[in-house]
Design goal:
Length: 247
Amino acid sequence: MAVLELTNISKHFGAIQAVNDVSLSIEPGEVVGLMGDNGAGKSTLVKMIAGNFRPSHGTMRMEDKELILHKPVEARQHGIEIVHQDLALCNNLTAAANVYLGRELRRGVGPFRILDYAAMYKRAGHIFAELKSETRPRDLVKQMSGGQRQAVAIARTMLSQAKIVLMDEPTAAISVRQVAEVLNLIRNLRNQGIAVVLISHRMPDVFDVADRVIVMRRGRKVADKAIASSSPEEVTGLITGAIEQAA
């Protein structure tokens, strides 16, 4: 059963058709690369899945039940998490504090409840271990590499038992070593049965880690095929318009 299924999804802003009649499905534990030039409709599509926008037309289903979202918090309640390109982390806090930001654990009774730092450090440590990340719960975010910061942002999604994680350009502007670390984090999410949508301009990363690639151009889906049956040359042609539609 597909974890997420979109049928004839469209979105227009006045006369501007940002997404036009897109259908797709994503299986549990599948990594899907979402590619396309700027303005292709990728961000709008992802924002509809994340609850930022309502589709103008079409339906979304999650685990075979219709999904109607009015705001991002409702998407999170259904197990849809997004890791934004800017990560939205607090540099002055520890990794564990960032993981639990807005969802802090407390202990005690009534008005005498206090933050349960020990429990938060312990659970965050377990999540980092599951991700096979070297990030430690007590490390300050401001002292972390780009790869470690991604681990913190991904750990936050796992706290809420995500079923699908939307990742926006996670390997942009980081070193080669850190890119490898982030791609391993994505593989570990897949190994735990969590679906990942990887929005990226980096062709090698998509072909390294994704099971499938979806290409959008001018609001339409022009390719949806297994990585093994495509090539970087074909995807480049689809993005630029040199190839109209995937074979």
